[in-house]
Amino acid sequence: MRVYLPCTLPALARVLAEGELGSAPLTGYAVTPALVEWYASGDTEELEYVALTDAARASLRMLAADRADGVKAAARRVVVAAEVPDGEVGMGADLEERARVRLAAAVPMARIAAVHVDEEAAVADVEAAIAALPEADLGDEDARFTVDGAEAHELLWYATQEMPDLVG
Predict the structure, then answer these.
(1) Among 52, 55, 65, 107, whose Cα sits 20 to 30 Å from the Cα of 91?
(2) What is the pLDDT of residues 6-28, one digit of tens each?
(3) What letters, b where the CB count within 10 A reaches 16 and e where it falls short, cover 75-112?
(4) Gap between the Cα atoms of 13 and 57, Å rounded
(5) What is the pTM of this model?
(6) Contacts of 68 (CB under 8 A, 6+ apart)
(7) Best CA proximity match to 155, nearest among 86, 41, 52, 84
(8) What is the pLDDT of residues 25-81, one digit of tens each?
């Protein structure tokens, strides 16, 4: 199963250094039966885009958490696409989390298929979205609009052999 895992550039550097992504449990996003049922008219490519977008939103929150912890990271959302055996993917039943999955183990480099990263042109909008997250979470419509502005940027696709260039 293709799983989209939210990440940041510093976390991607750790993936390269450690040879695996994260410590379990990991939260990712995938085309789940609940997502297929909810988005009945979509084909597989559209459903994968929904899962990728959900992971990009989670990456934005990871960036905000890093900033709160004093970690300086480029304001670029990162999503790692990995092939994970179906048996290692746990799915919830909550419709609000229709694409969310849980992985019980770290993802080794060999399972990483690609990385999706914001282009440099997105940095200002991603910075604004990070700053607006607290107010957006409280229901401020203007702040939500700012957060949604980051989603107007498509993530670029990178092959795994390009990962060192992304973090270097």
Answers:
(1) 65
(2) 999 999 999 999 999 988 789 99
(3) bbbbbbbbebeeebbebeeeeebbbbbebeebbeeebb
(4) 20
(5) 0.93
(6) none
(7) 52
(8) 899 999 888 888 877 776 888 899 999 999 999 999 999 999 888 888 889 999 999
**What length is written for the chain?**
168
Side chain identity at residue 96, one-letter code? E
The structure tokens listed for 128 are 């604004």
